[in-house]
Amino acid sequence: MSTLVQDPVPVADAPVVPVRTSERLRSWWHLPTALTVLALAALLVFGLGSPAADSTTFRLAAEGDLNPGGIVPGDVAIPARVLAIVLAALCLVIAGVLWWASATVTALGRWRTALVVVFGLLWVIAFLDWAFHGATVDVGAMLQTMMVLAVPLAFGALSGVLSERSGVINIAIEGQLLMGAFGAVLVGSMVGSPWAGLIAAPVMSLLIGVLLALFAVGYRVQQIIVGVVLNVFAIGLTSFFFGTVMKQNPQMFNQPLRLPTLRIPLLADLPVIGRVLFEQNILVYLMWIIVAVLTVALFRTRWGLRVRAVGEHPRAADTVGINVNGTRWGNVLLGSAVAGLGGATLTIGTGVAFGEEMSAGKGYIALAAMILGRYHPVGALAAALLFAFTDALQLRLGTLPTGSGAGIPSQFLLMLPYIVTLFAVAGVVGRVRVPAADGVPYVKQ
Amino acid sequence: MKLELRGITKVFGTFVANDAIDLVVEPGEIHSLLGENGAGKSTLMNVLYGLYRPDGGEILLDDEPVRFSGPGDAMRAGIGMVHQHFMLVPPFTVAENVMLGNEPGTFGFLDLASARRTVRELSARFGFDIDPDAVVEDLPVGAQQRVEIIKALSRQAKVLVLDEPTAVLTPHETDELMGIMRQLRDEGTSIVFITHKLREVKAVADRITVIRRGRIVGTADPSADQTELASLMVGRSVALDLDKAPAAPGEVALEVRGLGVTDADGVVLLDDVDLDVHRGEVLGVAGVQGNGQTELTEALLGLQKGARGSIRLDGAELVGRSTRQILDAGVGFVPEDRTHDALVPDFSVAENLVLDQHHRAPYATGVLLHPEAVRRRATAEVEEFDVRTGSIDDAVSTLSGGNQQKVVMARALGRDLSLFIASQPTRGVDVGSIEFLHRRIVAERDKGTPVIIVSTELDEVIQLSDRIAVMYRGGILGIVPADEDRDVLGLMMAGYTAEAAREAVAAGARTSDTTLADEGDIV
């Protein structure tokens, strides 16, 4: 009865503050140990693994950038081994701080998260330094690749946020992306304009949305099964048309169209971030707008409050007169339309024709981004950017000239995005609050 | 507003839940709907609230017939309902919950300031102390219930239906709720108060309607005798009192020292519990639900991961042993939630009766099960415990709640025990069966078995126990004799220590329960 204090008497309506243990948790050593192992690995592999003579060049500003007086340096060359050792040492310091905090049960609050994020950044730079030793890391180009790869993931993850916040599990993002990519090219080619494809993509992926809503909401079929079946259905359907009409008459049905790039003058000339943020096609700008609108809509409007109520406690929503299944239908349809835009980025966004199964698992990564992003639009975008970064890294490393770089086998590089996804999702599972009624069909008596 | 129900009938399949029910609630009266679990009270109110479509009959408000196609309609017509299981969204704030479905604001944007103001105004009017920005899941149940009341009142409810509102409250909170009900009545709100607790009906109701098996079986005045109300409710005469001989406790059989449970996030669920239970005594554990009782019983059974401390049963340490080893040591266990933790719904009555013993002789040898032995046991138990079932091969899910509970009790009590632990032994059981189950528990005690009874019903704890331990926020506040003053127990459930509670009672703190008891009505 050590921690119980009963005098003065508790106020009846005051919020309950749970009694927390003042002792170490059973799992107190998990995080510091993991960070220490990672930091030591960075020291041994990245530090001692980089040849002492090589240096790594980080390209920040390029020719023609709006860079008055060269405020942002162009190429920065740093001795690879020195940089890696310094970064690894800093990582070890952070691990040490966490050892101390965990061992003495010192609450760090937000600082703890901040320290882990800084650790991650330092570690990634150390990795880049090692992987690119003797070569150049073009930071602007890398970010550009990341953005191109992130957009479909972000749209997919936003589709998941819309659907799952209202309580419907959306495994069918993969199928929605594929249908969007297919519809954009098909209609765009027939009309002869990528803009027609931009409109067709969300409409086409609505087909998956309607089927998902019909079975998951209307007929209360197990939602994961419906989602997987719809993905297989989308692959079958698009492959059939790809193998028949598209193959026979690509001129008519499968042209590589591209949405024009909209360049914002001056801003696009900023070094490092200019082209990434201000020289993109409309889909990228749409993504930013949708993230912002959705964040406000979910947390500041009547619609958002009702959607979240339906996803958390549908019966409570019903008892105050909210149409639970109507809300779910609406959100699943809206979500699938958003995912359709993500599909469009795969074809008319990047200027390639439709290819069989071209979504290649991006829908599942988008689902992971949604979970890692804690069912929040901004979080989903951040997670999509993280996954896209590892993918961009993999692409860049694959094209390094021989004789430079760490020479990691390409098979391992291809695994990289998925390994990062796996660890990122495993790391947050149990910490993310899933909408309580996610995946549970609502039955009105 | 005057509410009238005429000939309301509701049928589920072949089961008639409401059979031509007539009910009139006058403006400004507290009308109590009294009946056992499953009598059809909640069904009737769900019909009124538009959640169920009636199969016959009509609803009149101020003598005008109305039709509700959903709760939204009912709410607009001025009917508010506080459900037994709160209809609040746990991660939302109080203000968000109150405005949900009825949100102030322009162009679809939420006007949180106005919602906060509504909560503050109503909260001040009734003397609640509710912070509009508190997150609902962090509030104690009593406060959550007040949020529900604020929610109903913010929608201008003229008829307020309270469905079993006291089931989750401490005696003290119950008193406060009754005060609120009287205040609302005096301001002209009609209140329908649904309950099966006679004590509360007598304390607060203006009129009483008794409902049994879907029909109205009579109306009564609050001055009616409790036994009379009980027999009206059950349909035969019942003994509300439990005659039991004084305990003859033997030596200490169960010794719990420093038992603690902490979850993965460091929240203390069970805090250094010390307990002794003697042979041949019943130790009652009282407390409001969620104060560590579940964790205590589960830790005793080896169901809580990472329990610390020591549990010695007849000298043998139980901490660290598997649940099967603990069961084999002779511990009989009745979990608090029978549908989730005690029974496999699709298994037959016979199979459920041997779930904890199925791997042992005489029910099994090696990998082989002996169905004959299982059936013999089942036949005997069904007879002894008077389980009403068509056959021992029927799925246990086809039985009524009370009969399911008898199956669980029969399973736990059907062998020689070294310790018997029952959590909520009579939840959802009709008054007649309660009497029987209580007798069985006392009989087990008289055989010399140490018994632990956990119940959120203070009456039950008082009736059964020889000593009472009160739990609060994961710890044991104190262990008092069974004849301790009811008010003291009530205050302890709200977090007072035994000494502080006794002082407070001596200084004049009391509950309506004792006021009634003084008038000689309470058994």
Automatic annotation (TrEMBL), chain B:
Signal peptide: none annotated. Keywords: ATP-binding, Nucleotide-binding. It comes from the Bacteria. Residues 3-238, 254-498 form the ABC transporter domain. GO terms for molecular function: ATP binding. The keyword Nucleotide-binding applies. InterPro entries: AAA+_ATPase, ABC_carbohydrate_import_ATPase, ABC_transporter-like_ATP-bd, ABC_transporter-like_CS, P-loop_NTPase. Gene3D superfamilies: P-loop containing nucleotide triphosphate hydrolases (3.40.50.300). This is ABC transporter ATP-binding protein. It comes from Brachybacterium rhamnosum. The lineage of its organism: Bacteria, Bacillati, Actinomycetota, Actinomycetes, Micrococcales.
